[in-house]
Amino acid sequence: MKIISKNILAILFSFIMLSCISQKKSSFKAKKIYESKTLIITQISENTFIHTSFKQTNDFGNVPCNGLIVKNHNETIVFDTPTNDESSDELIQWINEKLHAKINAVIPTHFHDDSLGGLLAFHKKNIPSYSYAKTIELAKENNFVVPENSFNDSVVLKVGDKGVIAKYFGEGHTRDNAVGYFPSEHILFGGCLLKELEAGKGYLGDANVSAWSNTIEKVKKEYPDVKIVVPGHGDYGDGRLLEYTITLFKGQ
Question: Domains of the chain by range and CATH?
Answer without folding.
Answer: 29-249 (3.60.15.10)
